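Dear colleague,

As promised, here are the two records you asked about, laid out in our usual form so they can be pasted straight into your sheet.

NAME FIELD: protein one
SEQUENCE, THEN STRUCTURE:
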Amino acid sequence: MATFYIANPARKHCCLKLFPSHLERFKMRLIVLLCLPLCALAVTELAKEWDFLLFAQFWPSSSCIYFEHSGCVVPEQVNGWTIHGLWPSIPGSSSQPEFCNNSMKFDEKQIEVLRPQLNVQWPYYNKSGDPTELWEHEWDKHGTCAYSLPILKGELKYFNQTLGVHSGINLLEILQKANIVPSTSDTYLPQDIYNAVYSGVQLIPNIVCMYNKEDKQHYLSEIWLCLNKDLTGRNCTEANTTEQHLMRKLGSSHKVLKFKPERQSGSHPTADVTSYFKDCPNNTGVYYTPIPRN
């Protein structure tokens, strides 16, 4: 007697076990007809699992503080902000899409053609780690979730599109226009950094700081911008909505400081909102130090 089954409809593909007989062929056609709507629904649900992309950029000197004990190396060609990752995200949720398909193992050969750009725009600063470690981590954790979007489907598209987004946003110049420049002595209010980025991209960003236990100072660490699924810009949601997911990534034990920035003369109305800052102090400046050169 023939047997057949329909896979869990939450999976991408419906599975059938077939046997060669007229009766079984009839049953097969019937099951396929029943299965197609379920498969289509499953694919649709996968596409709806996340709503926007969070594009995170590192400031190299702050990354070097993070990797101080393991050693840090900044490629000579790096002279500005570099890529942390492109993360499928869900607003208002602490449970974000990650490691969506463990069978999609990272294959460096698939992005070998992008290696020159990746080395400059998406470097890994941990001197004791493999240069591809960050790329592998970002693909395994986030690229496999972005796979449901056609323009990000596969390693080559995921990394190439992210490089393209990065090439179109020069945070170093945006901050310079607001007289926020790397310095070993000056500090800058997180509110002013927010205002500068908002002026430059006309979108609400998230400002991420880090606390250095060694000197007990705060540093500007990352800037997050948000994208629609067609890679056009959109306002970011409050930074704390993805707190648990992203704090695990950053490895920080510090709580997010959810404060209402004080309105200053000339500040943007949208800056008067809680939680567009992570790990940043209220009413005191943060360091934005020059890129270290070995």
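NAME FIELD: protein two
SEQUENCE, THEN STRUCTURE:
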Amino acid sequence: MRSCINHLRLDEQHNITSNNRNYKQYKPTLNPNLYIRELGGTCKCAQLKRVPHTHMATTTTVRGGALMWPTACFWGVCGVFTLDMTYNRFDRWFSASVLASGVLNIAITPWSVCVLDGWCEDHLSTTYRRLYTRLVAFTCLLARATIVYKVRGHLAGFAGREEAYERSWPTSGAHRRRYREYASSVVAAYLALVVPVNFMRLYLLYRYEEYGDSMLLLFFFNMYLQNWSMCCLETHFALLCFGVYLKFRAINDELSAVRSDVMVSNRYPVALRSSSPMLVAAATSVLQDSRGRPMEIAVEELRLRHGLTRESVEQLNNMFGGQLALSLITLCVMILFDIYNEAFHVGGAISRSKFIFGWILQYLFRFFVIVITAHSTTQEGCKTKVLVTEINNRHLNNNTKYELQLFLKQMNHQSIDITACDCFTLNGHLIASAIAVGTTYIFVLIQFHSEITQFTDNKKS
């Protein structure tokens, strides 16, 4: 934590002057593990002795609760880490199974395609389907290996920052409930969309498929195991990203209260004419609490909190960037080829029409959970800049003006965008781009299929 604060205040140490920075030492009382001492143009970070607190909100308690048992079980079986941000002791076995299944599926893909679809008379169509199946297996294998490697290097830093943040600024009860509701809803939806369809497909293959044998069942079991692994990694990102969103949301709520106080203190007629109790409640801010902090101190603390949260975004990018890129690409490819195969070919005795809608709904849900969660987090982080700018435009003292300008400068020099391995940014534009590209390639595949059909007919004649 000490290194994080030093990083946040590096620019300030070079620009601070004694004329506008001469306010007294502030020592928080809400059980923090650090405080800032700034006197006469100097800026020092010191480590406070930790004060025992029986109701401290740590990472474990925030992510615990009765609503979290589906997530705890899901991550306990196939997760890289658990709810308390420690390494999952079963991860090595599950990861080894995923890697072995990926290698096996890549090896037996030619046989499985011929047995299941019966399209092996034509070299062109068989080649692209083998490429598709091997691509899915390879991306799942690579995604698992990437996230295991990245988590080993970044999880400890992320967990330490989360714990230090929770110790100094505990999460409110309302935000804890929102986190638990989001986690339980997302994981329950994943399980409901993935498990029944996959098990039903395996059962029908075993019961009715004319070519069914143990090797074909093993091929599909491996494919669904890899899919299960990808789903678990996606929930890892979604839940951690939503936790960062809630931190940005708490900071913006306090900044909104500060903005209301500034409007009232500047005597704007719109604020003074209203007698609504909701406006009076909204005007209550940290400036009027029992600590009685000056505004520059309140803004400084919010600036530090926002800086630590931005660093959490950077850690998420470092841990999940490669995995998100592979996951989103795989989801788009599977949607594209499932639509194509359903439109032009039904293979085997078990019709794909029984499962196509379930699969597409699953892929779309996973895609939207990743993109919308990341987009909402980025938007909430950028909203802070708007609030700080509005406060900075009011009549304030020099110390507060300085803190606000430093706040803006730090936000301008550090990105809050969540990206997939820096290949593309996860925002609303990505959804529109995916739809446009997917539609284009659907027509390409239609034309490709027409050429294959014409070539096959000419060859037979």
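A couple of things worth noting about protein two: The chain has 14 helices and two strands. Residues 123 and 452 are 10 Å apart (CA to CA).

Best,
R.
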